[in-house]
Design brief:
The complex is a heterodimer of chains A (379) and B (248). Chain A has 379 residues and is mainly alpha-helical. Chain A has 14 helices and four strands. In chain A, a hairpin with a 2-residue loop joins strand 2 and strand 3. In chain A, helix 2 crosses helix 12 and helix 12 crosses helix 14. Chain A is globular, with a radius of gyration of 23 Å. The N terminus and C terminus of chain A are likely disordered. Chain B contains ten helices and ten strands. Chain B has a six-stranded mixed beta sheet with strand order 6-7-8-3-9-10, with helices on both faces. Chain B has a four-stranded antiparallel beta sheet with strand order 2-1-4-5, covered by helices on one side. The chains are: A mainly alpha (379), B alpha/beta (248).
Protein backbone atom coordinates (compact mmCIF):
# COMPACT_ATOMS: atom_id res chain seq x y z
CA UNK A 1 0.00 0.00 0.00
CA UNK A 2 2.67 2.48 -0.92
CA UNK A 3 0.22 4.72 -2.72
CA UNK A 4 -1.84 5.38 0.37
CA UNK A 5 1.06 7.32 1.86
CA UNK A 6 0.95 9.81 -1.00
CA UNK A 7 -2.57 10.76 -0.05
CA UNK A 8 -2.51 14.10 1.78
CA UNK A 9 -3.90 13.71 5.27
CA UNK A 10 -6.41 16.29 6.50
CA UNK A 11 -4.49 19.10 8.16
CA UNK A 12 -4.95 18.19 11.80
CA UNK A 13 -2.29 17.44 14.36
CA UNK A 14 -1.76 13.86 15.39
CA UNK A 15 -2.87 14.38 18.96
CA UNK A 16 -6.04 16.13 17.85
CA UNK A 17 -6.91 13.39 15.39
CA UNK A 18 -6.24 10.73 18.04
CA UNK A 19 -8.39 12.66 20.45
CA UNK A 20 -11.19 12.83 17.95
CA UNK A 21 -10.89 9.14 17.22
CA UNK A 22 -11.11 8.26 20.90
CA UNK A 23 -13.97 10.58 21.69
CA UNK A 24 -16.65 8.27 20.30
CA UNK A 25 -15.48 5.15 22.16
CA UNK A 26 -15.02 7.22 25.34
CA UNK A 27 -18.60 8.48 25.20
CA UNK A 28 -19.81 4.96 24.47
CA UNK A 29 -17.97 3.41 27.42
CA UNK A 30 -19.04 6.21 29.77
CA UNK A 31 -22.70 5.83 28.77
CA UNK A 32 -22.54 2.07 29.11
CA UNK A 33 -20.89 2.29 32.55
CA UNK A 34 -23.47 4.82 33.72
CA UNK A 35 -26.33 2.70 32.39
CA UNK A 36 -25.02 -0.45 34.09
CA UNK A 37 -23.57 0.86 37.35
CA UNK A 38 -25.32 4.11 38.21
CA UNK A 39 -28.83 3.98 36.78
CA UNK A 40 -29.99 0.74 38.49
CA UNK A 41 -28.91 2.15 41.86
CA UNK A 42 -30.42 5.59 41.41
CA UNK A 43 -33.77 4.77 39.77
CA UNK A 44 -36.64 3.24 41.71
CA UNK A 45 -37.84 -0.11 40.29
CA UNK A 46 -40.89 1.39 38.55
CA UNK A 47 -38.77 3.95 36.68
CA UNK A 48 -36.11 1.38 35.88
CA UNK A 49 -38.78 -0.82 34.34
CA UNK A 50 -40.00 2.09 32.23
CA UNK A 51 -36.47 2.87 31.06
CA UNK A 52 -35.98 -0.78 30.11
CA UNK A 53 -39.13 -0.54 27.96
CA UNK A 54 -37.76 2.56 26.20
CA UNK A 55 -34.50 0.75 25.56
CA UNK A 56 -36.44 -2.05 23.85
CA UNK A 57 -37.82 0.57 21.46
CA UNK A 58 -34.28 1.91 21.05
CA UNK A 59 -33.25 -1.55 19.80
CA UNK A 60 -36.06 -1.38 17.24
CA UNK A 61 -34.93 2.14 16.31
CA UNK A 62 -31.41 0.93 15.51
CA UNK A 63 -32.86 -1.48 12.99
CA UNK A 64 -35.09 1.17 11.43
CA UNK A 65 -32.10 3.52 11.15
CA UNK A 66 -30.28 0.83 9.16
CA UNK A 67 -33.17 0.06 6.79
CA UNK A 68 -34.55 3.58 6.41
CA UNK A 69 -31.68 5.95 7.18
CA UNK A 70 -29.04 3.99 5.32
CA UNK A 71 -31.01 1.89 2.88
CA UNK A 72 -33.83 4.31 2.13
CA UNK A 73 -36.51 1.70 2.87
CA UNK A 74 -39.30 3.51 4.71
CA UNK A 75 -40.56 0.62 6.77
CA UNK A 76 -43.90 1.64 8.22
CA UNK A 77 -44.64 -1.85 9.49
CA UNK A 78 -41.90 -2.64 11.96
CA UNK A 79 -44.54 -3.30 14.59
CA UNK A 80 -45.04 -6.64 12.82
CA UNK A 81 -41.45 -7.72 13.43
CA UNK A 82 -41.49 -6.32 16.94
CA UNK A 83 -44.72 -8.28 17.42
CA UNK A 84 -43.36 -11.53 16.00
CA UNK A 85 -40.45 -11.38 18.45
CA UNK A 86 -42.75 -10.38 21.28
CA UNK A 87 -45.31 -13.09 20.61
CA UNK A 88 -42.62 -15.76 20.31
CA UNK A 89 -41.43 -14.86 23.79
CA UNK A 90 -44.95 -14.38 25.16
CA UNK A 91 -46.02 -17.81 23.88
CA UNK A 92 -43.21 -19.40 25.83
CA UNK A 93 -43.94 -17.38 28.96
CA UNK A 94 -47.64 -18.29 28.69
CA UNK A 95 -46.80 -21.98 28.47
CA UNK A 96 -44.35 -21.66 31.36
CA UNK A 97 -47.11 -20.18 33.51
CA UNK A 98 -49.66 -22.78 32.42
CA UNK A 99 -47.24 -25.58 33.22
CA UNK A 100 -46.99 -24.28 36.80
CA UNK A 101 -50.63 -23.52 37.28
CA UNK A 102 -52.54 -26.24 39.15
CA UNK A 103 -55.83 -24.91 37.73
CA UNK A 104 -54.80 -25.32 34.08
CA UNK A 105 -55.39 -28.89 32.95
CA UNK A 106 -52.63 -30.40 30.75
CA UNK A 107 -50.68 -27.13 30.84
CA UNK A 108 -53.15 -25.54 28.42
CA UNK A 109 -53.25 -21.70 28.59
CA UNK A 110 -56.52 -20.53 30.14
CA UNK A 111 -57.68 -18.49 27.11
CA UNK A 112 -57.51 -21.68 25.05
CA UNK A 113 -59.55 -23.54 27.62
CA UNK A 114 -62.20 -20.80 27.49
CA UNK A 115 -62.18 -20.96 23.70
CA UNK A 116 -62.95 -24.66 23.91
CA UNK A 117 -59.58 -26.01 22.83
CA UNK A 118 -58.62 -29.28 24.43
CA UNK A 119 -55.18 -29.66 22.93
CA UNK A 120 -52.26 -27.32 22.42
CA UNK A 121 -52.11 -26.13 18.74
CA UNK A 122 -49.14 -27.65 16.89
CA UNK A 123 -47.25 -24.40 16.40
CA UNK A 124 -47.39 -23.68 20.12
CA UNK A 125 -45.70 -26.95 21.05
CA UNK A 126 -42.05 -26.01 20.31
CA UNK A 127 -42.41 -22.81 22.33
CA UNK A 128 -42.44 -24.80 25.55
CA UNK A 129 -38.67 -24.60 25.22
CA UNK A 130 -37.18 -21.22 26.18
CA UNK A 131 -34.31 -21.74 23.71
CA UNK A 132 -36.72 -22.25 20.81
CA UNK A 133 -38.62 -19.12 21.84
CA UNK A 134 -35.46 -16.99 21.93
CA UNK A 135 -34.19 -18.28 18.60
CA UNK A 136 -37.62 -17.92 16.97
CA UNK A 137 -37.93 -14.35 18.26
CA UNK A 138 -34.90 -13.46 16.13
CA UNK A 139 -35.22 -15.80 13.16
CA UNK A 140 -38.94 -15.63 12.43
CA UNK A 141 -38.95 -11.83 11.93
CA UNK A 142 -35.76 -12.18 9.90
CA UNK A 143 -37.22 -14.89 7.68
CA UNK A 144 -40.54 -13.09 7.13
CA UNK A 145 -38.72 -9.86 6.25
CA UNK A 146 -36.27 -11.66 3.97
CA UNK A 147 -39.08 -13.36 2.08
CA UNK A 148 -41.16 -10.20 1.76
CA UNK A 149 -38.13 -8.05 0.98
CA UNK A 150 -36.69 -10.33 -1.65
CA UNK A 151 -39.97 -10.69 -3.49
CA UNK A 152 -40.74 -6.96 -3.59
CA UNK A 153 -37.22 -5.59 -4.07
CA UNK A 154 -36.73 -7.95 -6.98
CA UNK A 155 -39.76 -6.34 -8.63
CA UNK A 156 -38.15 -2.94 -7.97
CA UNK A 157 -40.94 -1.90 -5.64
CA UNK A 158 -39.71 1.02 -3.53
CA UNK A 159 -40.50 4.40 -2.01
CA UNK A 160 -44.09 5.08 -1.07
CA UNK A 161 -45.28 1.74 -2.49
CA UNK A 162 -42.95 -0.14 -0.19
CA UNK A 163 -44.05 1.98 2.78
CA UNK A 164 -47.74 1.33 2.04
CA UNK A 165 -47.07 -2.37 1.63
CA UNK A 166 -45.47 -2.43 5.08
CA UNK A 167 -48.36 -0.54 6.53
CA UNK A 168 -50.80 -3.03 5.03
CA UNK A 169 -48.75 -5.86 6.48
CA UNK A 170 -49.08 -4.34 9.95
CA UNK A 171 -52.85 -3.97 9.53
CA UNK A 172 -53.20 -7.54 8.26
CA UNK A 173 -51.10 -8.94 11.09
CA UNK A 174 -53.32 -7.28 13.69
CA UNK A 175 -56.45 -8.60 11.97
CA UNK A 176 -54.99 -12.07 12.03
CA UNK A 177 -54.11 -11.87 15.73
CA UNK A 178 -57.51 -10.52 16.70
CA UNK A 179 -59.42 -12.91 14.46
CA UNK A 180 -57.71 -16.06 15.70
CA UNK A 181 -58.56 -15.52 19.35
CA UNK A 182 -58.38 -19.20 20.29
CA UNK A 183 -54.79 -19.36 18.99
CA UNK A 184 -53.43 -15.92 19.84
CA UNK A 185 -55.42 -14.56 22.75
CA UNK A 186 -57.18 -12.13 20.41
CA UNK A 187 -57.28 -8.42 21.16
CA UNK A 188 -56.47 -9.09 24.82
CA UNK A 189 -53.13 -10.43 23.74
CA UNK A 190 -51.02 -12.51 26.08
CA UNK A 191 -50.28 -11.38 29.61
CA UNK A 192 -49.28 -12.42 33.12
CA UNK A 193 -45.80 -13.88 32.86
CA UNK A 194 -44.60 -14.91 36.31
CA UNK A 195 -41.70 -17.15 35.36
CA UNK A 196 -38.93 -17.62 32.81
CA UNK A 197 -36.70 -20.72 32.80
CA UNK A 198 -37.51 -21.44 36.44
CA UNK A 199 -36.88 -17.86 37.66
CA UNK A 200 -39.59 -15.59 38.93
CA UNK A 201 -39.99 -12.44 36.83
CA UNK A 202 -41.84 -10.49 39.50
CA UNK A 203 -38.87 -9.82 41.79
CA UNK A 204 -36.90 -6.55 41.66
CA UNK A 205 -33.73 -8.57 40.98
CA UNK A 206 -35.32 -10.14 37.90
CA UNK A 207 -36.38 -6.73 36.62
CA UNK A 208 -32.89 -5.31 37.19
CA UNK A 209 -31.41 -8.30 35.38
CA UNK A 210 -33.76 -7.72 32.44
CA UNK A 211 -32.76 -4.06 32.37
CA UNK A 212 -29.05 -4.96 32.36
CA UNK A 213 -29.65 -7.53 29.63
CA UNK A 214 -31.49 -4.95 27.53
CA UNK A 215 -28.66 -2.44 27.94
CA UNK A 216 -26.10 -5.07 26.89
CA UNK A 217 -28.14 -6.18 23.88
CA UNK A 218 -28.63 -2.56 22.82
CA UNK A 219 -24.91 -1.84 23.15
CA UNK A 220 -23.93 -5.01 21.30
CA UNK A 221 -26.38 -4.39 18.49
CA UNK A 222 -25.21 -0.80 18.21
CA UNK A 223 -21.62 -1.97 17.77
CA UNK A 224 -22.64 -4.59 15.22
CA UNK A 225 -24.72 -2.19 13.13
CA UNK A 226 -22.04 0.47 13.43
CA UNK A 227 -19.57 -1.99 11.97
CA UNK A 228 -22.00 -2.81 9.15
CA UNK A 229 -22.64 0.84 8.31
CA UNK A 230 -18.89 1.47 8.13
CA UNK A 231 -18.18 -1.49 5.87
CA UNK A 232 -18.43 -1.36 2.09
CA UNK A 233 -21.89 -2.85 2.52
CA UNK A 234 -22.87 0.30 4.43
CA UNK A 235 -21.52 2.45 1.61
CA UNK A 236 -23.43 0.32 -0.87
CA UNK A 237 -26.65 0.86 1.11
CA UNK A 238 -26.24 4.63 0.93
CA UNK A 239 -25.55 4.37 -2.78
CA UNK A 240 -28.70 2.29 -3.25
CA UNK A 241 -30.70 4.80 -1.23
CA UNK A 242 -29.46 7.68 -3.40
CA UNK A 243 -29.49 5.98 -6.79
CA UNK A 244 -30.63 2.40 -7.02
CA UNK A 245 -30.50 2.30 -10.82
CA UNK A 246 -27.02 3.79 -10.88
CA UNK A 247 -25.87 1.05 -8.51
CA UNK A 248 -26.97 -1.58 -10.99
CA UNK A 249 -24.65 0.01 -13.53
CA UNK A 250 -21.82 -0.27 -11.03
CA UNK A 251 -22.21 -4.04 -11.16
CA UNK A 252 -24.27 -4.61 -8.01
CA UNK A 253 -27.63 -6.26 -7.60
CA UNK A 254 -29.48 -4.03 -5.10
CA UNK A 255 -32.01 -6.80 -4.35
CA UNK A 256 -29.84 -8.88 -2.04
CA UNK A 257 -28.29 -5.86 -0.31
CA UNK A 258 -31.70 -4.37 0.46
CA UNK A 259 -33.09 -7.73 1.53
CA UNK A 260 -30.20 -8.27 3.93
CA UNK A 261 -30.54 -4.80 5.46
CA UNK A 262 -34.30 -5.17 5.77
CA UNK A 263 -34.02 -8.63 7.36
CA UNK A 264 -31.37 -7.43 9.83
CA UNK A 265 -33.60 -4.53 10.69
CA UNK A 266 -36.53 -6.91 11.29
CA UNK A 267 -34.35 -9.13 13.48
CA UNK A 268 -33.43 -6.12 15.63
CA UNK A 269 -37.14 -5.37 16.01
CA UNK A 270 -37.77 -9.01 16.96
CA UNK A 271 -35.09 -8.85 19.65
CA UNK A 272 -36.61 -5.63 20.97
CA UNK A 273 -40.02 -7.29 21.09
CA UNK A 274 -38.74 -10.40 22.85
CA UNK A 275 -37.11 -8.31 25.58
CA UNK A 276 -40.14 -6.04 25.85
CA UNK A 277 -42.54 -8.83 26.84
CA UNK A 278 -41.06 -9.92 30.19
CA UNK A 279 -40.36 -6.27 31.04
CA UNK A 280 -43.81 -4.92 30.16
CA UNK A 281 -45.69 -8.06 31.22
CA UNK A 282 -48.10 -7.97 28.28
CA UNK A 283 -48.21 -8.04 24.50
CA UNK A 284 -51.37 -7.30 22.56
CA UNK A 285 -52.28 -6.29 19.00
CA UNK A 286 -52.72 -2.66 20.08
CA UNK A 287 -48.97 -2.50 20.87
CA UNK A 288 -47.82 -3.62 17.42
CA UNK A 289 -50.36 -2.37 14.88
CA UNK A 290 -50.32 0.49 12.40
CA UNK A 291 -50.11 3.32 14.94
CA UNK A 292 -47.27 1.81 17.02
CA UNK A 293 -45.42 1.07 13.77
CA UNK A 294 -45.67 4.71 12.76
CA UNK A 295 -44.60 5.81 16.23
CA UNK A 296 -41.45 3.71 15.92
CA UNK A 297 -40.52 5.42 12.66
CA UNK A 298 -41.49 8.82 14.07
CA UNK A 299 -39.09 8.41 16.97
CA UNK A 300 -36.29 7.56 14.54
CA UNK A 301 -37.13 10.59 12.39
CA UNK A 302 -36.96 12.87 15.41
CA UNK A 303 -33.77 11.35 16.80
CA UNK A 304 -32.08 11.24 13.42
CA UNK A 305 -32.41 8.43 10.94
CA UNK A 306 -28.90 8.82 9.52
CA UNK A 307 -27.32 8.22 12.92
CA UNK A 308 -27.64 4.98 14.87
CA UNK A 309 -27.08 6.75 18.18
CA UNK A 310 -29.54 9.47 17.20
CA UNK A 311 -32.23 6.94 16.33
CA UNK A 312 -31.79 5.10 19.63
CA UNK A 313 -31.84 8.37 21.55
CA UNK A 314 -34.97 9.44 19.68
CA UNK A 315 -36.77 6.27 20.74
CA UNK A 316 -35.84 6.74 24.39
CA UNK A 317 -36.74 10.44 24.40
CA UNK A 318 -40.03 10.05 22.57
CA UNK A 319 -41.20 7.21 24.79
CA UNK A 320 -40.06 9.02 27.92
CA UNK A 321 -41.88 12.15 26.75
CA UNK A 322 -44.97 10.11 26.07
CA UNK A 323 -44.98 8.75 29.62
CA UNK A 324 -44.23 12.12 31.22
CA UNK A 325 -46.79 14.04 29.24
CA UNK A 326 -49.54 11.49 29.49
CA UNK A 327 -48.99 11.36 33.27
CA UNK A 328 -49.63 15.11 33.53
CA UNK A 329 -51.83 16.20 30.63
CA UNK A 330 -53.10 13.18 28.80
CA UNK A 331 -54.79 14.85 25.85
CA UNK A 332 -52.15 17.29 24.66
CA UNK A 333 -49.34 14.84 24.02
CA UNK A 334 -50.70 13.62 20.69
CA UNK A 335 -50.84 17.18 19.38
CA UNK A 336 -47.42 18.00 20.74
CA UNK A 337 -46.01 14.90 19.10
CA UNK A 338 -47.55 15.87 15.78
CA UNK A 339 -46.18 19.41 16.08
CA UNK A 340 -42.73 18.10 16.98
CA UNK A 341 -42.76 15.89 13.91
CA UNK A 342 -43.68 18.79 11.64
CA UNK A 343 -40.94 20.96 13.17
CA UNK A 344 -38.31 18.26 12.73
CA UNK A 345 -39.24 17.49 9.13
CA UNK A 346 -39.30 21.18 8.25
CA UNK A 347 -36.22 22.42 10.10
CA UNK A 348 -33.99 19.44 10.78
CA UNK A 349 -34.62 16.60 8.35
CA UNK A 350 -31.71 14.70 9.87
CA UNK A 351 -33.29 14.88 13.33
CA UNK A 352 -31.65 15.75 16.65
CA UNK A 353 -28.43 13.97 15.66
CA UNK A 354 -28.31 15.98 12.45
CA UNK A 355 -28.85 19.17 14.43
CA UNK A 356 -25.56 18.56 16.24
CA UNK A 357 -23.90 18.08 12.86
CA UNK A 358 -25.47 21.25 11.49
CA UNK A 359 -24.13 23.27 14.42
CA UNK A 360 -20.67 21.67 14.11
CA UNK A 361 -20.59 22.42 10.40
CA UNK A 362 -21.59 26.02 11.00
CA UNK A 363 -18.80 26.37 13.60
CA UNK A 364 -16.33 24.66 11.30
CA UNK A 365 -17.24 27.05 8.51
CA UNK A 366 -16.59 29.99 10.78
CA UNK A 367 -13.29 28.56 12.00
CA UNK A 368 -12.19 27.79 8.46
CA UNK A 369 -13.10 31.33 7.51
CA UNK A 370 -11.05 32.74 10.38
CA UNK A 371 -7.94 30.66 9.58
CA UNK A 372 -8.31 31.53 5.95
CA UNK A 373 -8.29 35.27 6.62
CA UNK A 374 -5.39 34.99 9.09
CA UNK A 375 -3.36 33.20 6.43
CA UNK A 376 -4.16 35.95 4.01
CA UNK A 377 -2.79 38.67 6.30
CA UNK A 378 0.75 40.00 5.59
CA UNK A 379 3.53 38.52 7.71
CA UNK B 1 -12.82 -10.98 -33.83
CA UNK B 2 -15.01 -8.06 -32.95
CA UNK B 3 -15.59 -7.30 -29.30
CA UNK B 4 -19.10 -5.93 -29.70
CA UNK B 5 -21.46 -6.86 -32.50
CA UNK B 6 -24.80 -5.15 -32.89
CA UNK B 7 -26.91 -6.89 -35.48
CA UNK B 8 -30.14 -5.52 -36.90
CA UNK B 9 -31.08 -3.90 -33.59
CA UNK B 10 -34.48 -2.25 -33.36
CA UNK B 11 -35.95 -0.53 -30.31
CA UNK B 12 -39.43 0.93 -30.32
CA UNK B 13 -41.30 2.81 -27.62
CA UNK B 14 -44.94 2.52 -28.62
CA UNK B 15 -45.19 4.04 -32.09
CA UNK B 16 -41.81 5.71 -31.84
CA UNK B 17 -38.85 3.91 -33.37
CA UNK B 18 -35.76 4.90 -31.37
CA UNK B 19 -33.38 2.51 -33.12
CA UNK B 20 -34.09 1.29 -36.61
CA UNK B 21 -32.25 -1.85 -37.74
CA UNK B 22 -28.85 -0.74 -36.46
CA UNK B 23 -25.91 -2.93 -37.40
CA UNK B 24 -22.55 -2.01 -35.98
CA UNK B 25 -19.43 -3.79 -34.86
CA UNK B 26 -16.50 -2.76 -32.75
CA UNK B 27 -13.05 -4.30 -32.56
CA UNK B 28 -10.92 -4.56 -29.45
CA UNK B 29 -9.03 -1.27 -29.05
CA UNK B 30 -11.39 0.88 -31.11
CA UNK B 31 -12.23 4.44 -30.10
CA UNK B 32 -15.53 5.22 -31.74
CA UNK B 33 -17.35 8.55 -31.63
CA UNK B 34 -21.11 8.40 -31.95
CA UNK B 35 -22.70 11.59 -33.24
CA UNK B 36 -26.08 12.65 -34.50
CA UNK B 37 -28.78 15.24 -33.87
CA UNK B 38 -30.98 15.13 -30.77
CA UNK B 39 -33.30 12.16 -30.83
CA UNK B 40 -31.07 10.23 -33.21
CA UNK B 41 -30.96 7.33 -30.76
CA UNK B 42 -27.42 7.68 -29.38
CA UNK B 43 -28.31 7.34 -25.73
CA UNK B 44 -30.89 4.66 -26.53
CA UNK B 45 -28.13 2.66 -28.18
CA UNK B 46 -25.98 2.85 -25.04
CA UNK B 47 -29.01 2.12 -22.86
CA UNK B 48 -29.71 -0.99 -24.90
CA UNK B 49 -26.11 -2.23 -24.75
CA UNK B 50 -26.09 -1.82 -20.97
CA UNK B 51 -29.43 -3.54 -20.36
CA UNK B 52 -31.32 -0.41 -19.33
CA UNK B 53 -33.59 -0.68 -22.36
CA UNK B 54 -34.72 -3.97 -23.87
CA UNK B 55 -34.33 -4.46 -27.62
CA UNK B 56 -37.52 -4.98 -29.61
CA UNK B 57 -35.65 -7.13 -32.11
CA UNK B 58 -32.09 -7.83 -33.18
CA UNK B 59 -29.10 -9.13 -31.26
CA UNK B 60 -26.21 -7.79 -29.22
CA UNK B 61 -23.10 -9.92 -28.81
CA UNK B 62 -20.23 -9.03 -26.52
CA UNK B 63 -17.07 -11.11 -26.67
CA UNK B 64 -19.00 -13.98 -28.22
CA UNK B 65 -21.74 -13.85 -25.58
CA UNK B 66 -25.29 -12.71 -26.31
CA UNK B 67 -26.30 -9.79 -24.06
CA UNK B 68 -29.99 -10.38 -24.57
CA UNK B 69 -31.95 -10.62 -21.31
CA UNK B 70 -28.94 -10.02 -19.06
CA UNK B 71 -29.54 -7.86 -15.98
CA UNK B 72 -27.68 -4.53 -15.80
CA UNK B 73 -25.27 -5.69 -13.12
CA UNK B 74 -24.41 -8.86 -15.02
CA UNK B 75 -23.58 -6.80 -18.10
CA UNK B 76 -21.22 -4.68 -15.97
CA UNK B 77 -19.61 -7.85 -14.65
CA UNK B 78 -19.23 -9.13 -18.19
CA UNK B 79 -17.05 -6.08 -18.85
CA UNK B 80 -19.20 -3.22 -20.17
CA UNK B 81 -19.24 0.04 -18.21
CA UNK B 82 -20.91 3.37 -18.86
CA UNK B 83 -21.25 6.94 -17.70
CA UNK B 84 -24.40 9.02 -17.81
CA UNK B 85 -25.28 12.21 -19.65
CA UNK B 86 -25.98 13.99 -16.38
CA UNK B 87 -22.94 12.67 -14.51
CA UNK B 88 -24.48 10.58 -11.77
CA UNK B 89 -22.24 10.20 -8.73
CA UNK B 90 -23.19 9.50 -5.13
CA UNK B 91 -23.17 12.95 -3.60
CA UNK B 92 -23.31 11.84 0.01
CA UNK B 93 -20.31 9.56 -0.34
CA UNK B 94 -16.73 10.76 -0.49
CA UNK B 95 -14.84 10.80 -3.77
CA UNK B 96 -12.79 7.84 -2.57
CA UNK B 97 -15.89 5.86 -1.55
CA UNK B 98 -17.48 6.42 -4.96
CA UNK B 99 -14.49 4.93 -6.72
CA UNK B 100 -13.93 2.24 -4.10
CA UNK B 101 -17.53 1.08 -4.44
CA UNK B 102 -17.17 0.89 -8.21
CA UNK B 103 -13.97 -1.14 -7.79
CA UNK B 104 -15.57 -3.63 -5.38
CA UNK B 105 -18.47 -5.06 -7.34
CA UNK B 106 -16.72 -8.40 -7.74
CA UNK B 107 -16.53 -8.90 -3.95
CA UNK B 108 -18.76 -11.50 -2.32
CA UNK B 109 -21.37 -10.28 0.19
CA UNK B 110 -19.36 -11.35 3.24
CA UNK B 111 -16.32 -9.55 1.89
CA UNK B 112 -18.36 -6.38 1.57
CA UNK B 113 -19.30 -6.74 5.24
CA UNK B 114 -15.68 -6.90 6.37
CA UNK B 115 -14.01 -3.99 8.02
CA UNK B 116 -12.37 -1.67 5.54
CA UNK B 117 -8.70 -0.88 5.86
CA UNK B 118 -6.74 1.56 3.70
CA UNK B 119 -7.93 2.37 0.20
CA UNK B 120 -6.91 -0.22 -2.39
CA UNK B 121 -3.91 0.82 -4.44
CA UNK B 122 -5.92 0.54 -7.64
CA UNK B 123 -8.37 3.15 -6.33
CA UNK B 124 -5.71 5.69 -5.33
CA UNK B 125 -4.00 5.08 -8.65
CA UNK B 126 -7.17 5.78 -10.64
CA UNK B 127 -7.86 8.91 -8.60
CA UNK B 128 -4.36 10.11 -9.43
CA UNK B 129 -4.97 9.35 -13.07
CA UNK B 130 -8.04 11.56 -13.26
CA UNK B 131 -6.49 14.19 -10.99
CA UNK B 132 -8.84 13.95 -8.02
CA UNK B 133 -6.33 12.84 -5.38
CA UNK B 134 -6.62 16.11 -3.50
CA UNK B 135 -10.39 15.78 -3.24
CA UNK B 136 -10.20 12.20 -1.95
CA UNK B 137 -11.94 12.83 1.39
CA UNK B 138 -14.47 15.35 0.13
CA UNK B 139 -18.07 14.50 -0.52
CA UNK B 140 -18.76 14.02 -4.20
CA UNK B 141 -21.56 16.56 -3.90
CA UNK B 142 -18.99 19.32 -3.37
CA UNK B 143 -17.19 18.71 -6.68
CA UNK B 144 -17.40 21.08 -9.61
CA UNK B 145 -19.23 19.95 -12.72
CA UNK B 146 -16.04 19.00 -14.53
CA UNK B 147 -14.69 17.12 -11.55
CA UNK B 148 -17.91 15.15 -11.30
CA UNK B 149 -17.48 14.02 -14.89
CA UNK B 150 -13.92 12.91 -14.09
CA UNK B 151 -15.13 11.14 -10.98
CA UNK B 152 -17.58 9.25 -13.14
CA UNK B 153 -14.79 8.29 -15.51
CA UNK B 154 -12.73 7.20 -12.48
CA UNK B 155 -15.64 5.04 -11.28
CA UNK B 156 -15.89 3.58 -14.74
CA UNK B 157 -12.19 2.74 -14.85
CA UNK B 158 -12.39 1.22 -11.37
CA UNK B 159 -14.89 -1.33 -12.68
CA UNK B 160 -12.11 -2.50 -15.01
CA UNK B 161 -14.39 -2.83 -18.03
CA UNK B 162 -13.22 -3.92 -21.47
CA UNK B 163 -15.74 -1.70 -23.21
CA UNK B 164 -16.41 1.84 -21.99
CA UNK B 165 -19.48 3.80 -23.05
CA UNK B 166 -19.22 7.53 -22.36
CA UNK B 167 -22.32 9.68 -22.76
CA UNK B 168 -21.25 13.27 -23.48
CA UNK B 169 -18.19 13.39 -21.23
CA UNK B 170 -17.32 17.04 -21.99
CA UNK B 171 -20.82 18.54 -21.89
CA UNK B 172 -20.77 21.72 -19.83
CA UNK B 173 -16.99 21.77 -19.44
CA UNK B 174 -14.77 24.78 -20.02
CA UNK B 175 -11.90 24.74 -22.53
CA UNK B 176 -9.22 23.61 -20.06
CA UNK B 177 -11.42 20.85 -18.73
CA UNK B 178 -12.17 19.71 -22.28
CA UNK B 179 -8.49 19.49 -23.08
CA UNK B 180 -7.80 17.51 -19.92
CA UNK B 181 -10.70 15.17 -20.65
CA UNK B 182 -9.51 14.71 -24.23
CA UNK B 183 -6.02 13.81 -23.04
CA UNK B 184 -7.47 11.44 -20.47
CA UNK B 185 -9.63 9.85 -23.14
CA UNK B 186 -6.67 9.39 -25.49
CA UNK B 187 -4.67 7.83 -22.68
CA UNK B 188 -7.49 5.46 -21.66
CA UNK B 189 -8.04 4.50 -25.30
CA UNK B 190 -4.56 2.97 -25.46
CA UNK B 191 -5.75 -0.02 -23.44
CA UNK B 192 -9.55 0.09 -23.65
CA UNK B 193 -12.28 -0.11 -26.24
CA UNK B 194 -14.45 3.00 -26.10
CA UNK B 195 -17.64 4.42 -27.55
CA UNK B 196 -18.12 8.16 -26.92
CA UNK B 197 -21.27 10.14 -27.57
CA UNK B 198 -20.24 13.72 -28.23
CA UNK B 199 -21.73 16.79 -29.86
CA UNK B 200 -18.88 19.20 -29.55
CA UNK B 201 -17.37 19.72 -33.02
CA UNK B 202 -14.12 21.18 -31.76
CA UNK B 203 -13.63 18.24 -29.42
CA UNK B 204 -14.39 15.80 -32.24
CA UNK B 205 -11.89 17.49 -34.52
CA UNK B 206 -9.16 17.12 -31.95
CA UNK B 207 -9.77 13.62 -30.67
CA UNK B 208 -12.07 11.71 -33.01
CA UNK B 209 -10.73 9.32 -35.60
CA UNK B 210 -13.60 6.97 -36.20
CA UNK B 211 -17.08 8.45 -36.30
CA UNK B 212 -20.50 6.86 -36.66
CA UNK B 213 -23.42 9.12 -37.51
CA UNK B 214 -26.86 8.14 -36.28
CA UNK B 215 -29.95 9.73 -37.72
CA UNK B 216 -33.52 8.91 -36.75
CA UNK B 217 -32.39 5.68 -35.16
CA UNK B 218 -30.39 4.40 -38.13
CA UNK B 219 -26.70 4.41 -38.97
CA UNK B 220 -26.19 7.02 -41.64
CA UNK B 221 -22.50 6.56 -42.22
CA UNK B 222 -19.24 5.54 -40.62
CA UNK B 223 -15.73 6.73 -41.32
CA UNK B 224 -13.03 9.18 -40.26
CA UNK B 225 -14.14 12.66 -39.28
CA UNK B 226 -13.12 14.36 -42.53
CA UNK B 227 -14.97 11.83 -44.68
CA UNK B 228 -18.03 11.98 -42.50
CA UNK B 229 -18.01 15.76 -42.45
CA UNK B 230 -17.81 16.02 -46.19
CA UNK B 231 -20.73 13.64 -46.66
CA UNK B 232 -23.60 15.83 -47.91
CA UNK B 233 -26.20 13.67 -46.18
CA UNK B 234 -24.46 14.22 -42.85
CA UNK B 235 -24.25 17.94 -43.42
CA UNK B 236 -27.91 18.01 -44.13
CA UNK B 237 -29.18 15.96 -41.21
CA UNK B 238 -26.60 16.50 -38.54
CA UNK B 239 -25.61 20.08 -39.09
CA UNK B 240 -29.15 20.96 -40.07
CA UNK B 241 -28.15 23.08 -43.02
CA UNK B 242 -27.67 22.71 -46.73
CA UNK B 243 -24.27 21.52 -48.00
CA UNK B 244 -23.34 24.93 -49.37
CA UNK B 245 -23.64 26.54 -45.92
CA UNK B 246 -21.69 23.87 -44.10
CA UNK B 247 -18.17 25.00 -44.60
CA UNK B 248 -16.84 24.07 -41.17
Amino acid sequence: MTHTSTVPAPPVSRAASLGRRLRGPAVFVALLAAALLVVPVVLEPFRLNLLAQYLCYAIVALGIALAWGRGGMLTLGHGVYFGLGAYAMAMHLTLARAAQDPLDPDGLPSFMVWSGLSELPWFWVPFASPAVAVVAAVLVPGAVAALLGWSVFRQRVRGAYFAILNQALAAAFVLLLVGQQHLTGGSNGLTDFPVFAGHSLYTPTAQTTLYVLTVLVLAGLYLLLRHITRSRFGTLLIAIRDGEDRVRHLGYDPTWAKTLAYALSAMAAGIGGALFVPIMGIISPSLIGVIPSIMMVLAVAIGGRYSLAGAALGAVLMNAAQTTFSEHFAGTWTYLQGALFVVVIALAPAGLAGLAGQVRQALHHRRAHVTHTSHGSPR
Amino acid sequence: MSLLTIDDLTVTFGDFTALDHVTLSLDEGDLLFLIGPNGAGKTTLIDTITGRTRPTSGTLTFDGRPLHGMAEHHIVRAGIGRTFQTSVVFEHLTVADNVDLAASHHLRPWQLLRRRRALPEAVTHILERVGLTERLHDRAGTLSHGQRQWLEIAMLLAQRPRLLLLDEPVAGMNTDERTRTGELLTEIATDHTIIVIEHDMDFLRRYAHQVVVLHEGAVLTRGDLATVQSDPRVQEVYLGRTPSEATT
